[in-house]
Amino acid sequence: MTEERKYPRMKSAPLMRVRNLTPEIDGPVRIMGIVLSSTTGSAMVQDIYDDIEHAKSILVIVEGKLIEDEKYILIGNILERVSDSGKEIVLDASLAYNMNKLDVKLYKEALELEEQVIEVLTR
Predict the structure, then answer these.
(1) Are 36 and 72 in contact (CB under 8 A)?
(2) Alpha-carbon torsion (116, 96, 94, 6), positive or negative
């Protein structure tokens, strides 16, 4: 007798801006950020995908320590944490990929082209 196993497909992690993150988001998200400060287990990351005047920061829970002033792609789930100053959101990162050599402008152009292709194919 064989047992049939089902492996549900993982949800994709859409690229989001930190200012658009809310605790109601279900599933993983992907952000691109530069590390402002880091200690073992956590880091403060500022969004680099967003416009400079609108860029926000988020506390990220990571395994280990991230390198300060380097760029990372972070994938994880949003958590809501209660502190003395009120509620805040935190990214619990399951993946932190150093992308310091990535050309962000070219990456943005590729994402915009991908959106255009999807739009044309879904017509």
Answers:
(1) no
(2) positive
